[in-house]
Amino acid sequence: MKNILVTGGAGFIGSNFVQLMLKKYDDIFVVVYDKLSYAGNLDNLLPVADNPRYQFYKGDICESDEVNAAMGKYQIDTIVNFAAETHVDRSLTDPGGFIQTDVYGTYILLEAAKKHGVERYHQISTDEVYGAVLEGRSVETDQLKPRSPYSAAKAGGDMMALAYATSFGVSVTITRGSNNIGPYQYPEKVVPLFIINAIDNQPLPLYGDGLQMRDYQHVFDHCEGIDMVLRHGQPGEIYNLGTGVETTNIEMARLILKLLNKPESLIQPITDRPGHDRRYALDCSKIKTLGWQSQHTFEQAIESTVKWYADNEWWWRKIKSGQHYREYYQRQYAGRER
Ligand code: NAD
Ligand code: DAU
Q1: 317 pLDDT band (50/70/90 cuts)?
Q2: Is any ligand 2 atom within 6 A of the Cβ of residue 87?
Q3: Is the pTM of this model over 0.70?
Q4: CATH classification of 3-180+216-241, choosing from 3.40.50.720, 1.20.140.10, 3.20.20.450, 1.10.940.10?
Q5: How far is residue 61 from each of residues 198, 249, 291, 319, 337, measured CA to CA in Å?
Q6: Could you give the residue numbers annotated as active site?
Q7: Which ligand is nearest to the CA of 85?
Q8: If you measure from the C-alpha of residue 134 to the centroid of ligand 2, how many angstroms do you get, rounded to a whole number?
Q9: Contact criterion met (CB below 8 Å) for 87 and 38
Q10: Domain coordinates of the chain in residue numbers?
Q11: CA 132 to ligand 2 center in whole angstroms
């Protein structure tokens, strides 16, 4: 692993991964390949912008010629694919964009992996591919039962990656992560959205009864787990990646308000997300056998995330005041109060 192509590296998790890898290793070269969608942001990569072992390459994973040009130019031996459309609510209004990037784009990257004979193709996947898990925990061999266009597209990407391993011998690994929180998360996702609304004394729009359960893990833990799989994971294998501890959305909202010293009256119940998955829960025994362990509890992860947003208004104010975000917010939330 010398020259790594990090697709989607200007997004939330990808940019944290790039920062971690450049800090941890001095013998790797990292190329971020990203089309800079609404969620891609070069501010996320400012801490590494002057690093001589980092290069940004603007491109779309759905464009085969662009992908192959970047692969050849930088003699890429490893692909880590974070690039995706990632927000479940947006997948309900634009499923086509999700199929295009998360399935077709994955296929284009796998073709490039095959053509250039990479040492490893790593696919970043999600616990959502298992569908809602009302009891027990998902293991890697469970049947996939995705229920939203987002999770169905991600499941399609996983299946394609495994098919390239079987059919063409591409060295594929997959991680299926739970909900990440931490620095640089676009504030359409619930935790940063609730934090910045609370800071501005605006309502926290809570879907349905707020009793849905998620495993909120710190993005630093997720990135360490991906690195662990890249170095010690077995080709052809899938690894779940989360804390294994779930919290309800209402508990998460209350904790954010408490940390910011804001009243619970800011919680505003609104109509539910259609098809809302009640619970995801991962069994993470397999990745623990590699030596990985989560370093943050839910409370620690939320606390440090709240602090990061409170300390970095320069980062999110630009987004919140921008036209794209304001129009999205209006479309998504207007008139949904219950
Ligand atoms: P994000 O939305 O913050 O970033 C996605 C990035 O991909 C952006 O930089 C965007 O510009 C880029 N991108 C989108 N379409 C592209 C295309 N066609 N070509 C090139 N670049 C493109 O996403 P995130 O939350 O950082 O998620 C990263 C990956 O992790 C995704 O694959 C997602 O499914 C997965 N995942 C996310 C979470 C989570 O909680 N956020 C949890 C588990 C798995
Ligand atoms: O589980 C991993 C997945 O986590 C990733 O694969 C996705 O890319 C990521 O977006 C995330 O999906 P979720 O749907 O779980 O995340 P989101 O932040 O959109 O919502 C988290 C929970 O909060 C969910 O139960 C819905 C609820 N919610 C969300 C929003 C945006 C609200 O109550 N109010 C909101 O305004």
Answers
A1: very high
A2: yes
A3: yes
A4: 3.40.50.720
A5: 36, 33, 32, 24, 38
A6: 127-128, 150
A7: 1
A8: 17
A9: no
A10: 3-180+216-241
A11: 13
